[in-house]
Amino acid sequence: MHKVLMPIGDATEVMDTLYPYFRLPEDGYEIVVTGPEARLYNGVMHEIPPETEVPWDITREKPAYHIRADLAFSDVDPNDYAGLFLSGGRAPEYLRYDEDLLRITRHFFETNKPVAVTCHGIEIAAAAGCLEGRRATTVAKCALDITQFGGSYVDQPICVDGNMVSSRTWHDYSQQFKPFIELLNASVDDTASVSSAANS
Length: 200
Prior knowledge:
The chain is an alpha/beta fold. The chain contains six helices and twelve strands. The protein has a single domain (2-199), classed as Class I glutamine amidotransferase (GATase) domain (Rossmann fold), CATH 3.40.50. The protein has a seven-stranded mixed β-sheet with strand order 6-3-1-7-8-12-11, sandwiched between helices. Strands 2-4-5 form a three-stranded mixed β-sheet.
């Protein structure tokens, strides 16, 4: 199976992360979870409480499932992966300072491999310097992470820009996965064709 890399950390959002973890293998892609260290991480659930005495203007965070990273960022060779999935939650707020993760992220943009980004995951692509001249969407409160790094923010469920498919939140996943998987399939087919031609 071709592999897709997914970085996580403590406070990774569980719906953002577990949906691709189970969905992509249905189309023949193995998800490899990576983090600052190879260990178990604390997932969280973000939700604006629907019925509270005092209204919430932003999501409330609650503990959720735990997710294991099998590989540390420092041990990742991005050449081994067909694509990258940047999920959300608060984890990207601190993961974006990890130089190994930034190195990994740049590889996928520089080699034009498929990248899926949702919600706060855009902060990692921004910190890696990969958004200049690009169009992308994200949760509205992260729009500055696009525009302050030279990109254009669009407020729509998904945005396809070259090798990147971005979405606002997991609520848009029903529209995001088809184009992302199409990019993965095309990229894998192109790689196979180049390899076959080189060996003939």
